[in-house]
Write a structure and sequence with these properties.
Order of helices and strands: EEEEEH
Number of domains: 1
Helix content: under 10%
Radius of gyration: 11 Å
Number of strands: 5
Distance between the termini: 11 Å
Amino acid sequence: MNTVVENGERRRAAARCARCGRIGIVYVWPDGTRKPLGQTAFCDCDEQTLRLLEEEREAGGDGP
């Protein structure tokens, strides 16, 4: 998925929860903050660690 810059402040990207593996779309701000798009929680995990799929691909990890 290509990322899209919006308003020069944030962009959208595909991300995966490192705990449960759920994949979804997040907003990413220049400071690295990641928030789920259109929802308050990405998944049901208590502590969400969201990794961008583009980061996983660059690191040589398995894709979705």
